[in-house]
Each structure stands twice: as structure tokens, then as C-alpha cells.
Amino acid sequence: MGYPQRCFPIGRFSGKQGFLHPFWGMQWSYRQLKWCLMKRWEVVRSGILGDIRAGAFENGRLPGDLVLAERFGVNRHTVRNAIKVLESEGALRVQHGVGTFVADDFISHTLDSDPKFTFKLLGQNKSVKREILSINEISVEPDIATHLKIAPSALVTAVRTTSFINDWPLATGTAYFPVERVPGLATAFEGLNSPTAALKRCGIPEYKRKWTRITARRPTQQEARLLRISSSSPVLFETNVDVAPDGLPIKYAFGVIRADRYEYLIEGDD
């Protein structure tokens, strides 16, 4: 028996085999029941996120559990599960005895030729932190070599990072720097967690974004763990190339960004 498309109230308990559906006359296994309940809280989570983006909550405060339960047609326990997940993801903050509030951590990023992401966020009064997961010199893969315009056998410095905004993870990914154009980069990162600062140490104080490509997908298990989100939550998948003043690529990067806390702003010319 496949999973039901919609979830209805469960009928009488029918012993160790599972639960008997009152309308269909068929039993649901414990696994199917768990799937059904998870789908319910995910619907509530998605609905609350939509309201957050629309600015629907006056003064940033959510209505009570009973109001939300009535709106979504679920019980209070399901609402609380959704709120608990949203709190762990950084979208909500719960003040016990006071109420549940929208966390003021949504990021709006203007997409232009300036790749200095951290400085833009500091301008929004955000606390920005980057964690270096690993730095290694490796042989470049053919597709990355094409983007960097280097030989397929050339060495690159691969830097894996996770970025945090106000102590919650926003993005994780890997950047590749050609060793022939940025020698000593791995050493330059000592005591730093900023690619911009490390590039300055290597004699490249300025660079700009050549192009950015953005798509959407589901995160891998590792990405979901690093971003502290469900594996069913969509993420933005971004690839980009940065170039030095002479026009040669100095960085190719790809990474995933939490789609529920982030948006791109593209402005037209005046």
C-alpha cells in the first residue's frame, strides 16, 4: 500500500499492525502514520514562512497555537512541532510565557559585480562569521579548469567554508583558486577566515564578479546538516567566477544558500 496523498483523522487503534483508516477501511503502518504527521507539520512550516516573507505578522508576533491550528486544520501539537523546527532553523524565536516572534535575520543581497558578500551584510547590521572547514591544494577537475582558464592538470587551492549570520548558518560551499595565479593562498589564510583578506595578503587587493548562476534544488544530507535544515527544504545553488583587474579568473566557487532566509535583489539601471 502506498502513502496516502492526503492525511485524514486516524480511526480506532487496531493492534500491533498499525492504525485503521475510518473512511478507507485500510490499515496504516506506523511508518505511514509518521509520514502523514510529518507532512502536516511541513505544511504548517511552509505556511508560516510564507507569512513571514509577506510581513503578515503585526509587530513580528505570531498568533497563538489555537489560532494557527484552526487556520491550518491541524492540532496544537502539530503547530508546536512546526514552530520548534522553525526556531531551530533560526526563523522564529520563542519567548516562553511571552509568545513566538519572527527572527529579524532575513537577508537581502544585491546582485552586482561586487563579490564582497560580508561587507554588504555588515551594512545591514548583521553579525557575520565564516568557518573554514578545510583548505587543500588539489589537482583541478576538468570543468573547474575550464571556468578558471587553466590546464586540466593544474593545481588549485580548494577552500570549504560555512557562513553564519547572527550565529545561524546561511551558506556552505567550496571556492577554487588557481595556484599559478594566487600562490601561497593556503598560508595566507592563517589567522583569517576571509577570502578577501587572504587575497590581499597575496597581492590581490581588488577583484570583481564576472558572472553568477543561480538555480534551486534540494540539499544533500551533508549540506542539510551543515545548514541545520530539513533535507526536504529547498536551497539556492550558486556558482560564480571572480576575476582580477587583468581579467583573469582567480576564483571559481559553488555553494548552497538557505532559500527560506535569503533573497537576491537585482536592480535595473537608472
UniProtKB/TrEMBL annotation:
Coiled-coil regions listed: none
Gene3D superfamilies for this protein: Chorismate lyase-like, Winged helix-like DNA-binding domain superfamily/Winged helix DNA-binding domain
Keyword Signal: no
Annotated SUPFAM superfamilies: Chorismate lyase-like (SSF64288), Winged helix' DNA-binding domain (SSF46785)
Assigned keywords, A-Z: DNA-binding, Plasmid, Transcription, Transcription regulation
GO biological process, one term: negative regulation of DNA-templated transcription
GO molecular-function term, one example from the UniProt record: DNA binding
Listed PANTHER family: MANNOSYL-D-GLYCERATE TRANSPORT/METABOLISM SYSTEM REPRESSOR MNGR-RELATED, MANNOSYL-D-GLYCERATE TRANSPORT_METABOLISM SYSTEM REPRESSOR MNGR-RELATED
Name of this protein: Phosphonate metabolism transcriptional regulator PhnF
